[in-house]
Design goal:
It contains no helices and 40 strands. It is mainly β. Strand 15 (194-201) and strand 16 form a beta hairpin. The radius of gyration is 23 Å and the shape is globular. This is Glycoside hydrolase 43 family protein.
Length: 541
């Protein structure tokens, strides 16, 4: 059996492809650099993070991108001996998003194509395809022609923002779209039609879309046509996978799916989902990737194995030879010349401006940059939170000289949602430790704990996350842990904790940060970073 989610933590918008005996899933990374996560499996049960292909300034530059913008909904395919990766780079989100709303909701999103002959090789520089909407995908027809699909955005007043799915032919020789775009599917009354993927089977073109928005109403819609341009008839049940009518389902928000066929002809759907906190109904692990066995009926339509159309915590495996991967170590010692693959940073394609692994041997040095809410140059290196219960710690050497210098351990969702255990300096107190919290749905936008004076020298910082509860601790070298008395609300690190209309699609990260808002670049050095997942509540005291 396969247990879901197969890609825990922030891994939304999955796109899957099989090449021989290997399976690859690409997921969104939004404002985190490098762009796009590619995971690898040989049995659909065990997965490893393999690479992030958008890793050069010529491919991706997200400086200035708002929170939860950047790289959306990659589509990974393979044809003609090449891997094709399509993705959206979102530059502006806008606030008015519902269909029929008054006023303009202007968005900027650009769709690109990169290629490579190896999944883990150096991918090409991007080809700009269009900017008419997001969630692009590439369909390779059996006659050799290729088509780009994407949702169409309509900003005009009184119009449906999600105006349907458009298709246009792509010519690999000229590396551009050719001919006219065609509106091939307007969607269903559920609305918010996006995430198109096209397949061909028994002479039918099958169109898979996501509808209902990426929250609790999310659903996978299927339609088919004998002609790529339509008209498309809807599936007899319309929606082939959704938990929108079942608030008791452990996997919620199911949608944005893609299909893959094994060598033996079994069909699996990968899709995004969310696991709400039992006590708070918020998904602090963000939108994750699940997989489910599907079956084709005698009527030529796809359904879940039990016909219920519900996401499941377990699904039958295809029975391939087991292929586990070595687990990642709990401790990261910054001994190598590059960051371990688990870690990312925000927006900038110029990491040398933000951090160094060579300035101090065996340490990660973060150069003090802009504020922790900056959308430009922010020295924040972090990894995904992938469990409801986790222990995180890091040892830091940092000697600030004034209040505009700060560094520490952060539990981070975005510039308006975080808890930051940091060291700084203040007149009358000197070097000290405190927590700054950015609270998106509180009458007080930010909150600070009282400063705790610290002597010179390294300090080890610790966070314990147990579902919606977050506690912080610190210790000096050779001393015992000192726990801060406050219990912080970890549930703010979720899509559901938000100001109305703001984009919130990312997920929780834990990591290290450093600021010097005076512009002098005062650094902080980090000796190691621990990340340990737990499956039970633990009293940290």
């Amino acid at each position: 059996m396969i247990r879901n989610p197969i890609l825990p933590g922030f891994n939304p918008d999955p796109s899957i492809v099989r090449v021989g005996a290997d399976y690859y899933i690409a997921t969104s990374t939004f404002e985190w650099f490098p762009g796009v996560q590619i995971h690898h499996s040989r049995d659909l049960v065990h997965w490893r993070l393999l690479s992030r292909p958008l890793n050069r300034p010529s491919q991706l530059n997200m400086l200035g991108a708002p929170d939860s913008c950047g790289v959306w909904a990659p589509c990974l395919t393979h044809a003609d001996g090449l891997f094709y990766l399509i993705y959206t780079d979102v530059k502006r989100y806008g606030r008015t998003t519902v269909g029929g709303a008054s006023g303009a909701s202007l968005r900027d999103f650009h769709n690109y194509l990169v290629t490579c002959d190896r999944i883990d090789g150096e991918w090409s520089d991007p080809v700009h395809l269009n900017s008419s909407g997001f969630d692009p995908s590439l369909f390779h027809d059996d006659d050799g022609r290729k088509y780009l699909l994407n949702m169409l955005w309509d900003h005009r007043p009184g119009r449906n923002r999600f105006a349907g799915i458009v298709a246009q032919e792509y010519c690999p020789k000229v590396r551009a779209l050719i001919g006219d775009r065609q509106l091939i599917f307007k969607g269903t009354p559920l609305g918010l039609t996006e995430a198109p993927h096209l397949y061909k089977r028994d002479g039918w073109y099958y169109l898979l879309t996501a509808e209902g928005g990426t929250g609790w109403n999310h659903a996978v819609t299927m339609a088919r046509s004998r002609n790529i341009a339509g008209p498309y008839e809807l599936h007899p049940e319309t929606y082939i996978l959704s938990s929108r009518t079942r608030p008791d389902a452990p996997l919620q928000r199911a949608g944005h799916a893609d299909l893959v066929e094994t060598a033996d002809g079994d069909t699996y759907a990968v899709y995004l989902c969310g696991r709400p906190l039992p006590n708070r109904g918020r998904c602090i692990l963000g939108r994750e990737t699940a997989i489910q066995r599907m079956v084709w009926g005698d009527d030529g339509w796809l359904r879940t194995v039990d016909g219920q159309g519900l996401p499941s915590l377990t699904t039958p495996s295809p029975g391939l030879p087991s292929h586990p991967f070595p687990p990642a170590p709990a401790r990261t010692d910054f001994e190598g010349p590059s960051l371990p693959v688990e870690f990312q940073w925000l927006r900038s394609p110029y990491p040398d401006e933000l951090f160094s692994l060579t300035e101090r041997s065996g340490w990660l040095r973060l150069f003090g940059c802009e504020t922790i809410g900056s959308q430009y140059r922010q020295a924040l290196v972090a990894r995904r939170l992938q469990s409801f219960c986790a222990s995180i710690a890091t040892r830091m050497d940092f000697e600030p000289s004034h209040f505009q210098q700060a560094a520490g351990l952060v539990c981070y969702y975005g510039g308006t949602k975080f808890h930051y255990l940091h060291v700084s300096h203040e007149e009358g107190v000197g070097k000290h430790l405190r927590v700054m919290s950015a609270l998106p749905d509180s009458t007080q936008a930010d909150a600070f704990t009282a400063p705790i004076a610290l002597p010179p020298g390294p300090v080890t910082l610790r966070a314990e996350i147990d579902y919606e509860r977050l506690r912080f601790a610190y210790r000096l070298d050779g001393s015992e842990w000192v726990w801060l008395p406050q219990i912080f609300d970890a549930s703010i690190l979720s899509d559901e904790a938000t100001s109305p209309g703001a984009p919130n699609f990312t997920g929780a990260f834990v990591g290290m940060a450093c600021q010097d808002m005076a512009g002098t670049g005062h650094p902080a050095d980090f000796d190691w970073f621990d990340y340990i997942e737990r499956d039970y509540l633990l009293d940290p005291a």
